[in-house]
C-alpha cells in the first residue's frame, strides 16, 4: 500500500511537534558498528543513541539533575 502525500504531510507535522532532530557525524564505518551493537542488544539505532546519551548525562551529572527529556521526581515521605 502506497503512502499518500497527505499521510506524509501528517507524519512530518507530528514529528516536528514531538521530536527535535540533529545530524551526527562519525568516522566512516563506525555507524555500521554501532548499528550492529544496537541490534545485538535488541535496540534500534536511535534507541541506543538516546540511551547512550541519557546514561552519559546522568553519569556526568552524578544523577543530581535529570537527563534531557526526564523530570526529577519528588521523593515520597
What does it look like?
It contains three helices and no strands. The model has no long low-confidence stretch (mean pLDDT 88). The N and C termini lie far apart (54 Å). The protein is an all-alpha fold. The chain has helices at residues 5-18, 30-40, 45-60. The radius of gyration is 17 Å and the shape is extended.
Q: What keyword list fits this structure?
A:
3 helices; mainly alpha; single chain; 77 residues
Poorly predicted regions = none
Please give the alpha-carbon distance between the first and last residues: 54 Å
- How many strands, what sense, and barrel or not for the largest sheet? none
Q: What's the total count of β strands?
A: 0
- Strand fraction band? under 5%
Shape: extended
Note the run of SSEs as H and E. HHH
Summed over residues and divided by their number, the pLDDT gives a mean of 88
Helix content: 40-55%
**What is the C-alpha radius of gyration, as a whole number of Å?**
17 Å
Helix count? 3
Q: Helices and strands: which structural class?
A: mainly alpha
Topology:
Blueprint: H1 5-18, H2 30-40, H3 45-60
Short summary:
The chain has three helices and no strands. The protein has helices at residues 5-18, 30-40, 45-60. The N and C termini lie far apart (54 Å).
Amino acid at each position: 500500500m502506497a503512502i499518500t502525500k497527505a499521510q506524509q504531510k501528517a507524519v512530518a507535522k507530528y514529528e516536528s511537534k514531538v521530536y527535535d532532530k540533529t545530524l551526527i557525524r562519525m568516522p566512516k564505518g563506525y555507524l555500521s558498528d554501532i548499528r550492529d551493537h544496537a541490534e545485538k542488544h535488541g535496540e534500534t539505532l536511535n534507541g541506543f543513541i538516546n540511551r547512550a546519551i541519557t546514561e552519559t548525562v546522568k553519569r556526568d551529572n552524578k544523577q543530581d539533575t535529570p537527563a534531557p527529556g526526564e523530570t526529577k521526581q519528588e521523593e515520597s515521605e
